[in-house]
């Protein structure tokens, strides 16, 4: 060894290192997830370390989430010591009506708990985060813990509950989102007008709603209410912390959707923290360094390593 060459320490604890396991099938229906796992789980197995789990649901308009899309952003959590799962779900355009997407994500959570030892997961520290429709899904997971109506037979002995929720520009009141309606009566009027309309745009709108919600139009309103986390949240089911973020220039999901969720959670005496992202749109410029750092700090506060 030469004296003039400097020496750096090695990394016996494998700090800051993670690996990606792609396309793990978690359900008999073929749904898959990507999993980011700290290196220490597999390369230092004698440590038997348990890591908090972050489940991520990419926005897709309730179609097919791209489970690769946010891997660069999510990898920073894995490097810090979290296990991170990017989860897919069934696509309503393939004939899988709501709430299939919610059933799938809950199944994924139970799958991960069932395989907690294999992947180094702390079953008691599970958080969910999602963008857009994934934000809606994440909030619903948070306020419908172990609800039997959303539970498949797979991994039935495990819980699908979570200990914290992060919603990124998700729709929270679907009557307002789809019909610009503040209540059932207004929604019913809009639906009736759509069904009676003869123009191509209205017919296409109805066809899309039928794919997502079914052809029994009488069930649309109660179904959409049950999938509106701002309407579902109450003091009993909202005892976990929530982080809400929404861009003020979002022209896909209006920022008022955050307001509705925030007001609902405050009325339920929930632990909720919320941020407007100045001039933030639906993705893209939304992801400022300040936004990412705020999320990082919040995660670290709720699930310290």
UniProtKB/TrEMBL annotation:
It comes from Fastidiosipila sanguinis. Signal peptide: none annotated. Keywords: Hydrolase. GO terms for molecular function: hydrolase activity. This is Alpha/beta hydrolase. Residues 46-264 form the BD-FAE-like domain. InterPro entries: AB_hydrolase_fold, BD-FAE-like_dom, GDXG_lipolytic_enzyme.
